[in-house]
Structure formats: C-alpha cells, structure tokens
Amino acid sequence: MALAERRCLLGLAVVLLPLAAAANVLQEAGQRFQPLWSAGGMVASQEAEASRVGRDALRAGGNAVDAAVAASFALAVTHPQAGNLGGGGFLVLWQPERLSRGQPLAPQELRVGQGRAVTINFRERAPLAAGPDLLLDASGAVDRRKATRSLLSTGVPGTVAGLLLAHRHYGRLPLGRLIAPSIRLADEGVVVSKALADSLQAAAPLLRADPESARLFLRPGGKPYRPGDHLRQPELAGTLRRIAAEGEQGFYAGPVAQQLVALMRRRGGLISADDLRGYRARLQAPLLGDWRGHPVIAMPPPSSGGVTLIQLLNILEGFDLAALGLNSAAALHPMVEAMNLAYRDRNRWLGDPRFVEMPLKRLLSQGYADQLRRTIRPESHRPAGELDPPPAGRAVESTNTTHLSVIDRDGTMVATTTTLNFPYGNGVSVPGAGFLLNNEMDDFTALPGAPNAFGLVQGKANAIAPGKQPLSSMAPTLVLSPEGLPLLATGSPGGSRIITTVLQVLLNRLEHGLNLASAVAASRIHSQHWPDQLAVEEGLSPDTLRILEAMGHRWRLVPAMGAAHSLEALPGGGTLGAVDPRRAEAALSGE
Hints:
Helix content: 25-40%
Radius of gyration: 24 Å
Number of strands: 20
Strand content: 5-15%
Structural class: alpha+beta
C-alpha cells in the first residue's frame, strides 16, 4: 500500500473513532424501517379510508372482529379491485380467555396459549350445475377465457356470509353501525387516489367489455377516472343497506339475489337461486403449528395456506437460519428446497375436506418434516422433475387479493384475507346491485397437470364438483408468544406467493430478529415446485444470486411480491404496525 493511501486510512480512523465512542449521539434507529405505534388497538389494510373505518369501530367500543367487519365492507367500496361483496375469503381469530367469561369452548374453537382460536371459511363454492369439464374447450384443453373472463368462472360468493357469521358469533357493535360508514362512502363517493386511478386505467379494457362495469367504474365515454375525481356507487350503497337491514337475506335472497340470477341466466352463468339460498359460511377449527416455542394459528383446508406454512416451518426449524444470515445463499437454498417439497404436497393432496380425504396428520407431523429435510441436498438444487413429472401447458401469473389485520386494546387478534381472484374478478358486475363478480372457479383443477393462472399444477383432489370449494393459497395467520400471549397478525395477497410471503415475514421477525417493519420490507423469494424456477425480488446481492446459480437454481427477477400488512401486540399493551411498502396507499390506523 502506498504511503499516501496509508495516511488517508489513518486519517479516516482518527475521524471515525470519536464518532464510535459517542454511542449514537444522533439517536439513529438500528434498522432502516420502523413500525408505527398505537397505545391501543390498530387496523392495517390496503386502503386508508377502510383502515379509518375499522379504527372508528374500535373507538366506538367495538372489538377486533367489529373492526375487521367494518373495514372489509369499506374495502368493497374503496378498493374495488379486490375488496368485495362478490368474492370470498378466510378469517382467523384469537381471543384472550378472560374475555370468554367462563363460556365453554364452541365445537370449532381450540384453546391456544392463554386464549381460544377459531377460523371462518367463506370461500366461494362451485354452483350445483358445475362439473369437472366446465372450463374445457371442445378439444379437451383448458379454455382460458371460460376459466377467467366468463360467468362460468364465477363461484357462489361467500364474503357477505362470512363477515356476518364473524359478527354474529364474535362481534360487539350492532351490524348497522359497522356497515353505515361504507354506505356513506358509496353514496357520497370516494376520492379516487393515484393507486386506484392507475388500477382502473390498467383494467379499462376489461371493464369496457362489460356494459355494467363500464358504467360503474369508468367515466362517461369509457374514460378512466383520474386522481382527485369522485367515484360514487349508489347501487352498491343500496345493496349494503339491504345487508345492514336484513343480514344474509339482504344478499342471498330478495332483489340482490334476483339480479344476480337474472344476469347468470342472460349470459350463460350457472349460479342459481338454490345456490345462493344454500350458501353457508362455516366455523372451522384452526390448524396449530409452532416456531421455536411460538404457537402459530393458521387456516385449514380448503385453504392450503395453513398446511403448507406449517409444513415449511417444521422443515426449516431444523436449520439455524439466523446463523446462516438473512437472505444469504446458505439460508435461501434450504428455504427454496423446502418450498418445492411443501408445494409438491400441496398440489398433490389438498382440496375441500368435504370431498376428499387428505393425510393432514402426516403432512403436519414433525416426523414427516424431518424425513423431507433429510432429502434436501446441502450443496445443490434438486430439479423439480425428480419430485414430480412436469406439467402440461403454461400459464400467466395473477396476484390480486386483499388482506387486513386487526389487534384491539384487549389483545384480540384477527387476520382476514378476501379476494375476487384477478383484479376486478372476471370484470362482470351485477346490474342494479353495484358489485363485481369473482373468477375463483379457475382455482379448481380444470385439467390435472395443466397450470392455473397462478402457475400451480394441481391434482384430482381439487377437481371441480357441485358445491365444492376450490383450493386456495390464502394464509391469514396469527402467532402467540411462548407465554401464550398475543404477538403477530399477518397475511398477504399474491396468489401462490401468499404462503411464502407469510413464511418470510415470520422468519424475518422471529428467527432473524428484525423489527416488524423491517421484517415486512425485506426482499423476498418464491418457489413452488413447478415451474422449476426461483422468483426473486430486487434487493438480493448479485453475489448471492451467483452462488445460488452455481448450486443449480435458475432464478428470475420478478415484480414485488405480496403486501403483508401486519400488526404486533406489545407485552405491556399497545400495538405496533407495518403496512407493506410494495403496494401504494396501504395504511395503518390506530386508536
């Protein structure tokens, strides 16, 4: 080293030493991202007005269920690309035992830690007239237009039934009080944000294809709304009024149901009045997992989220990921291999438990996870073809769903994820009722071996059948502290990437010790067995990617994955919150 270089380095050391000894005189945070704090409860959702509606329910004396119900109805108004009345979803709930006032456990409730947990399944269902060949063309191949853009793609909606079931069993405030803000927003109009304007612009060709959707969500002449415009939805307000006044009957019977059935008859859909009258949301016992002493509460089938997440946690608990380093090649390699193994099992075994038998006890057992872990090659990627044969055909990716998390002042936690499947579903709106319809039938296995719109290659367990619910990747998840106290509420949109998004948020917070905001913001990866390719977000080191390549991983850079709006309960009271920076205009609102 030249003398001048040595003098420069010595001079730098002289400058740095006093700063190091000053012990952070600028009081700078140790991590780049910081969660927000509330002295009471908090709501985290994809849209600011909906978060405020949920917060107001908490301030009015409501609990976390009230806030989740109020915010979900608001999202149907303010976030039409995914918030909905015409879709479905799942909800996971944990309440402290002290709030039960000595009531016995309901059949579907489980005692977990110092409280009790339950889930609500309000996934869409196949119409009674649906059959296994519903989405095939004359040659026997999957017809992508039928599967995603026609009324044959619409399952019987479950969102309204699910939210009302949650409120009826676990809410505190009157239903009308919870829906009133959404009625006002629909009647008076919402200010179109930049994010909503961009979304409507992108969806304009889809919305123009349906006269009712064009009328509802585009300006006269078929032009998209601009930021700052007012979007009024009086027909949706009318539907919400009926729900507030009549409950399920305001949606699944009467004028709203008649309008939906008339549309189906007119344009070749299958949903009948019997389908609507027969729809029921269901309370289900949660699945329970564990990460190094932290109880994990997750959704059972027909969501694959809980089974696959717990299986991944069981496999990865055998690795010291913290010592290997966050997003190092040494840590990412076993994560990728575990993802491929878990998704193989997901696609092979899982479906609607009312229709198929699944080896859940085995899939969730630590012994099986230990067996799978031993098949992971420490220095090289195991090609997908060695796990299962390759699929037929190809598919594009879709990512739109919406997730919200709530923790109230008493420590009750709710994580709920709802969806239309694609942004704006199939693009078809119910005339006179003001809401869009889902295209969730594409989540069934239309043809074994052919990927759906999320690239998932699924088996016969998820074949279409009358009244059956399609397999889902939604993964609303709650985590308790080792002492059994409330800790985390999380979940995400993102199609097949939901499960791995939730996994990485949990690992980042619980294993790597990041704060909640950093855990949510950190770069993500995803692998799902087929296609045999590792999806990576921006932010991973080129050196890390080169090492992974040398181990046999083929990777590609993909757009930002997921939107894991998450909350953390503090031991002494209060809540921390972090909305995912990957999606604009998500918001936290605390009491």
